[in-house]
TrEMBL record:
The lineage of its organism: Bacteria, Pseudomonadati, Bacteroidota, Flavobacteriia, Flavobacteriales. This is DUF948 domain-containing protein. It comes from the Bacteria. The chain crosses the membrane at residues 6-26. Keywords: Membrane, Transmembrane, Transmembrane helix.
Length: 96
């Protein structure tokens, strides 16, 4: 056998032995990529759910701001009510 035939034979043997292993590695890589794709889809759905459930926080913050203003007004009304109460009590004593 000449050198060219020997080289072709070696290449053929290596190809026959290595090709199934390469195909197996490619298949495992493809399965891993599908798994990663599925995980990303689940993460996206979870992220959309979290975003949907937290969008009401802005409205809640607005409500807290309005409630703080109402508390300030209520405190002012309470002070004015105490002043009216004291004034009316004083006038009532003067009339009696």
């Amino acid at each position: 056998m000449n050198t060219v035939n020997i080289l072709w034979l070696i290449l053929l043997i290596v190809t026959v032995l290595v090709l199934p292993y390469v195909v197996r590695l490619l298949h495992r890589t493809w399965l891993a990529s599908r798994s990663i794709e599925r995980y990303f889809k689940e993460m996206k759905e979870a992220g959309i759910g979290v975003a949907g459930n937290t969008e009401h926080i802005k409205a809640l913050n607005d409500t807290i701001g309005v409630a703080s203003g109402i508390l300030d007004v209520a405190g002012s009304i309470d002070e004015n009510a105490d002043t009216l109460k004291t004034t009316l009590a004083t006038r009532a004593e003067k009339i009696n």
